[in-house]
Specification:
This protein is an alpha+beta fold and 290 residues long. It has helices at 2-49, 58-99, 104-116, and strands at residues 149-154, 159-168, 173-178, 187-190, 194-196, 217-221, 227-235, 244-248, 261-263, 268-270. Strand 6 and strand 7 (227-235) form a beta hairpin.
Length: 290
């Protein structure tokens, strides 16, 4: 009990410190935004008054563009730092709550919030988003890290479950915790039985290619459960705040699929079979699943 109390106290102190640090940085964020707005205003005024910005006013125009770009880049860098701090604090908070005794309702809410708080990938000058962004999975068999959220294939139930990696053994086997496990006992999975979940959202406006397309076959977390089931993308997000709409396989419907359900980007991955075993179909109408 004393250890649990110390953990709770440490998380509370972390929350307080994060809030204090953010409050200190807000004036700087506003000041940088004012600089961005002023640069944009000057650039617009220049273009309004100069019909041919690449003519006689070329030098001034390029200087205004460069100044604006620099101001935007500085603001973007600062905002990214703040968002990274929030993400780290959110992960610590999540893990602290997972160590406690959660009701079923609280667990489902925590999983939902974790999906909603998935950070948005901000495209760099290189253009193409990297691994773990939306539908872009890391290389098959690549090393995973402690704390990574995964879909883990349970050989006994032949179901993909939501789990967190606790530790990695040298022989590419991972100790994972079933997020819905009643006991604190860990299970060991081979790398081939794990699918890492996205770490960033893909923005449909700039990185539509990093999202699963309509009719793509996927594994998705069935709403109000901790299990992944086979389905097809009915419609991808049209806005980064929106979830996928996924139709899960269900032979109790004439179409073979249930009506589309919302699933956050974090919980949608490419469909995969393990040793020829097809993923279990989603819960049937009226049935209750884990």
């Amino acid at each position: 009990m004393p250890k649990q109390k110390n953990n709770v106290q440490a998380v509370e102190e972390m929350r307080k410190k994060t809030a204090e640090d953010l409050l200190k940085k807000l004036p700087d964020v506003k000041e940088r935004q004012d600089v961005v707005n002023e640069n944009l205003k000057r650039l617009q005024e220049f273009r309004d008054n100069e019909p041919n910005p690449m003519g006689k006013g070329k030098t001034k125009h390029l200087a205004a563009v460069t100044s604006t770009h620099g101001a935007v880049a500085a603001q973007q860098t600062e905002l990214k730092k703040i968002l990274d701090e929030l993400r780290r604090a959110s992960e610590v908070d999540y893990r602290s709550q997972m160590e406690g005794d959660l009701s079923r309702r609280d667990l489902m809410e925590l999983i939902k919030i974790r999906g909603e708080l998935l950070p948005l990938w901000v495209n760099k000058s290189s253009g193409f988003p990297g691994e773990y962004v939306g539908a872009i999975a890391p290389q098959e068999g690549s090393k995973l890290n402690e704390g990574d959220a995964v879909a883990a294939f349970n050989d006994k139930t032949e179901i993909w479950i939501l789990a967190d990696i606790i530790s990695c053994n040298s022989n590419s086997r991972y100790e994972c915790k079933d997020v819905d496990g009643e006991s604190k006992k860990l299970a060991v999975f081979s790398r081939s039985h794990l699918i890492p979940l996205p770490k960033w959202k893909a923005n449909p406006d700039s990185d539509k290619h990093a999202l699963f397309a309509k009719n793509a076959i996927v594994l998705a977390l069935y709403p109000q459960t901790t299990c992944f089931y086979k389905g097809i993308v009915h419609s991808p997000p049209s806005d980064f705040r929106e979830p996928y709409q996924v139709a899960f396989e269900d032979d109790s419907y004439n179409s073979g699929y249930c009506p589309p359900m919302p699933v956050a980007q974090k919980y949608v991955v490419a469909f995969k079979e393990v040793a020829g075993i097809t993923a279990s179909t989603a819960p049937k109408k009226g049935n209750k699943k884990k």
